[in-house]
Amino acid sequence: MRRILMLLMALAAVMQLAGCAPWPSSGLKGEFSRTLGVNLTDGHVVEEEDTHGGFLGDGDTTLILTFTGENRTALEKEIAGADGWKALPLTENLNRAVYEDYFGGLCEDVPQDLTDGWYYFLDRHSEAEDPEDDSGLFGRGSYNFTLAIYDKESGVLYCYELDT
Fold this sequence. Notes:
Oligomer: single chain
Strand content: 25-35%
Largest sheet: 6 strands, antiparallel
Order of helices and strands: HHEEHEHEEE
Helix content: 25-40%
Distance between the termini: 49 Å
Strand order of the largest sheet: 1-2-6-5-4-3
Number of domains: 1
């Protein structure tokens, strides 16, 4: 009986702590917040689409958010200090992925020649040796990656995830 009570108390503590996360725990904002390591709670949703599903879970997810005022300033400070974010411009491979219509979706939304802002790339493919390195992106038969691009000039964050 004492063991059950202790287990229930531990479970209650875990559930309480789970509700104290610095960003949303569900939805696309929550998923991308955890992946990107920044709080996207205060972003205004411009576009939100997730086509994942089916047996293998293939599909893509697009989330476009705008940030203004203090929320924009806070996000930019957070991105500047977060792991995995790099200053624009994009690498040659990522530039090719975004603008040469290999993956659709994101390509039509991201403005050309962004130079002021940051990007985040995570190669989630099982063959990726370094998840932050995009050099092997086009050398495989399938794609599993997350890419986010923040345009500092406009305060727009483009988030994209692809699984094939």
